[in-house]
Amino acid sequence: MIKILFFAKLREQLNCEFIELEIDQVSVAEVKSSLIKQNPQWQSVLMGNKVLAAVNQEMVNQNTIVQSGDEVAFFPPVTGG
User: Fold this and answer.
1) What SUPFAM superfamilies does the record tag this protein with (predicted)?
2) DSSP label at 33?
3) Full domain range(s) for residue 11
C-alpha cells in the first residue's frame, strides 16, 4: 500500500487530501497514471509540468521507484524569499 498526499493548491484542485493505492514497485510517473485511471478528472492537474513529487519526504523525479509502505507527496512549485 502506498499513501499519496496532496498539498497546497493541488489539494484544493483535486478536492482530496490523501489517497491510498494497492500498488508496488512502480515509478512516480506510474503512480500518477494509476491515479488518473481511477480519477480521470485529475489528469489536467496531475500531468502539469509544474507538479513536484517527494517520496518519504525527499524530493524525487518521475522515474523514482516507489515501494509498498512509501509515502508519496505531490505539490505545486514552492516560491519563497
Assistant:
1) MoaD/ThiS
2) H
3) 2-75
